[in-house]
From TrEMBL:
The keyword S-adenosyl-L-methionine applies. The keyword Thylakoid does not apply. Gene3D superfamilies: 2.40.50.1070, Nucleic acid-binding proteins (2.40.50.140), Vaccinia Virus protein VP39 (3.40.50.150). This is 23S rRNA (Uracil-5-)-methyltransferase RumA. S-adenosyl-L-methionine binds at Q296, Y325, E346, D391. It comes from Caldanaerobius fijiensis DSM 17918. The lineage of its organism: Bacteria, Bacillati, Bacillota, Clostridia, Thermoanaerobacterales.
């Protein structure tokens, strides 16, 4: 990385200002423009905008710059949806018409696949999120302060990690979340409870995590603090229980976390009221969500995504299905009623226990879940799969695990991906190993952000 670059007679340096016309968007959410002979990448900018930006990094002839002003808006931009847009780091594309957001995502994915030489597949387009707004079933709000020093509870300010913006409204969640947030903030302010300052590592209140099951209305409220103070939370519990909500509070939890990192980590959990889980339904099946287990954050979107995966898997009658990176077993369990047998593999023991419980809960006796690394565990399994479903984390599958999957020679592999960059790289490896990508479809699980979920059907080639 260089802080300056002299190229084709043009001298560019870090901190310098540029005005760039955005002509394209690339994953993960960079607006692309050109300045002299440099390619300029600006996070969050969109095609059609003219942006004033400051150079942050120069690498060869690629400049990364931060937008400071939108000099000219794109024709399809909209305004006035949320007063916090821009300052709040939650949404990137809220200023764009939803249909345009979908086009951008679809193109980002196609471009990445093209770049990896994956070209001969049917592209089935992108499905919109069933809900454009209020689609999130989980929010992690942060306690902090605003620029005037007052206690706040909301999202980190964009580009200013140490400031937190209050959220009076938020288009990503329903009104129950905001009512709970306001109640917690009022309680904290009235009781003069200090927020945790991640620079000095002192203070008490860190996060408020709210999870809501859309189908059952059950809500879990989890207040995350350090152990630097004692607090009985009686008043908090009563205040939360007294809020008039559309859903219902089934549990209020207190998580202790003294770790230095800003992530919500559970060092100890105390149930202050009710129980420590909620029940959600997907495609007619029931799933138990515990405070820290992974569950897709867009319930209706997850149904559409899992339906897509099930469609790509084809007829499952009498088939053996592997659900790799299975988390709490959602995908395998959704396929189990049709399949002969489902085998799930997952690294986190807690998730595997939840997967086993979810299978029992749905009276399915043909599912087995193993704990461990996919690449390792695969070497110990004797059953031969007909269909392999993979849903890896953002880092993708990688050559070792792909090699071990391919050794089984399954006819069909269904790849569910939350990161098209690693998807493209992994698909290349599958194609080089005798498989062909047959069709690809995208699913928008996160409207107003650059995230996109992609499902690919990969088929064994018999020559
Ligand atoms: N399919 C699930 C979860 C997908 S998230 C669902 O839709 O709910 C990806 C999962 O992969 C996480 O639960 C993570 O713990 C797990 N994981 C990450 N690396 C892994 C590895 N090397 N082996 C097995 N599981 C892994």
């Amino acid at each position: 990385m260089y802080s300056y670059q002299f190229q084709w007679g043009v001298f560019m340096k870090k901190g310098q200002e540029l005005i760039v016309d955005i002509v394209d968007v690339e994953y993960p959410g960079y607006g692309i423009g050109y300045f002299e002979d440099f390619k300029v990448k600006i996070k969050g900018a969109v095609t059609g905008q003219k942006v004033r930006a400051i150079i942050k990094k120069i690498r060869g002839n690629v400049i990364e710059a931060d937008a400071v002003e939108i000099v000219k808006r794109a024709a399809y931009e909209r305004e006035g949806i949320c007063s916090s847009f821009g300052a709040c780091g939650g949404c990137t594309y809220l200023n764009m018409d939803y249909a345009e957001q979908l086009k951008i995502k679809e193109n980002m994915v196609k471009k990445l696949l093209d770049g990896a030489g994956i070209t001969q597949y049917d592209f089935l387009g992108i499905q919109a999120s069933p809900l454009e707004f209020s689609y999130r079933n989980k929010m992690e709000f942060t306690f902090g302060r605003d620029s005037a020093g007052s206690l706040t509870l909301g999202m980190h300010k964009r580009g200013r990690f140490f400031e937190v913006v209050n959220l009076d409204t938020c288009v990503l969640v329903d009104e129950d979340f905001i009512k709970i947030l306001n109640c917690a903030l009022e309680y904290a302010a009235n009781n003069h409870l200090p927020y945790y300052d991640s620079r000095t590592h002192s203070g008490f209140l860190r996060h408020l995590v709210v999870r809501k099951a859309f189908k059952t209305g059950e809500i879990l409220v989890n207040i995350v603090t350090t152990t630097q103070m004692n607090c009985d939370f009686d008043q908090f519990i009563n205040a939360i229980k007294d809020i008039r909500l559309r859903g219902k509070i089934v549990g209020i939890l207190h998580t202790y976390n003294d770790r230095l990192s800003d992530a919500v980590i559970c060092e100890r959990l105390e149930v202050l009221y009710g129980r420590d889980y909620i029940i959600e339904e997907l495609l007619g099946l029931k799933f138990k969500i515990s405070p820290f287990s992974f569950f897709q954050t867009n319930t209706y979107g997850a149904e559409a995504l899992y339906n897509m995966a099930r469609k790509f898997a084809g007829d499952l009658t009498d088939k053996i299905v592997f659900d790799l990176y299975c988390g709490t077993g959602t995908i395998g369990i959704i396929m189990a009623p049709k399949a002969k047998m489902v085998i799930g593999i997952e690294l986190m023991e807690e998730a595997v226990k939840a997967a086993q419980e979810n299978a029992r809960f749905n009276r399915l006796s043909n599912c087995t879940f193993y704990t461990g690394d996919v690449a390792e565990v695969l070497t110990k399994i004797n059953d031969k799969p007909d269909v392999v479903v993979v849903d890896p984390p953002r880092s993708g599958i990688g050559p070792k695990a792909i090699n071990n999957i391919v050794k089984f020679g399954p006819d069909t592999i269904v790849y569910v991906s939350c990161n098209p960059q690693t998807l493209a790289a992994d698909l290349r490896i599958f194609e080089d190993a005798g498989y062909k990508v047959k069709c690809v479809e995208c699913m928008d699980m996160f409207p107003h952000t650059y995230h996109v979920e992609t499902v690919a059907r990969i088929q064994k080639e018999y020559n």
